[in-house]
Amino acid sequence: MIKIKRNGIYSIHISFNINDVNSLIEVFQVALEGGRGEIDLEEQAVINNKSIKKLIITCNNEQDKLSFASSSMFLEMEDEVINNNLDRFEKCSVNLNFYPAELCEVSFGRKNVTIYGFLESS
């Protein structure tokens, strides 16, 4: 079950278990190929007083950005960042470890926010 949680002013945590890794690989691959990768969250998140039910990942070769709209959290990342995370998720599926936790740093308004990924035990 993929969960999203705001953890302070400058960080957001995305928690997942080993069963979610293949879904994350698929979503990041869709984004890398120019599509819109979407994951429905099993548990609604509340971030900045907004209800989040879906994580959407797209490729943006300008600047990594975070935005919210229509009950969704949008992560726009450069292809290099997506590739790097794809590689890390693929390794995670084999060695059952996700380290370091940083997925990316994104621009959100006038702040930079770090997105972290955490592999939870099932």
Please provide a written account of the structure.
The chain is α/β, with parallel strands linked by helices and 122 residues long. It contains two helices and eight strands. Strands 1-2-8-7 form a four-stranded mixed sheet, with no helix packed on it. Helix 1 runs antiparallel to helix 2 (79-95). It is globular.
Radius of gyration: 13 Å
The string of secondary-structure elements, in order, is EEHEEEEHEE
Largest sheet: 4 strands, mixed
Order of strands, main sheet, comes to 1-2-8-7
Question: Oligomer, anyone?
Answer: single chain
Q: What is the number of helices?
A: 2
Count of individual beta strands: 8
Question: Uncertain spans, ≥5 residues at pLDDT below 50?
Answer: none
Strand content: over 45%
Percent helix, as a range, is 10-25%
Secondary structural class: alpha/beta
Distance between the termini: 9 Å
Produce the secondary structure layout:
Blueprint: E1 3-6, E2 11-17, H1 21-32, E3 37-47, E4 50-59, E5 65-69, E6 72-77, H2 79-95, E7 102-108, E8 111-120
Parallel strand pairs: 2-8, 4-6
Antiparallel strand pairs: 1-2, 3-4, 5-6, 7-8
Question: Main traits of this protein?
Answer:
single chain; 122 residues; alpha/beta; 4-stranded mixed β-sheet; 2 helices; 8 strands; 49% strand
Question: What is the gist of this entry?
Answer:
It is built from two helices and eight strands, in the order ββαββββαββ.
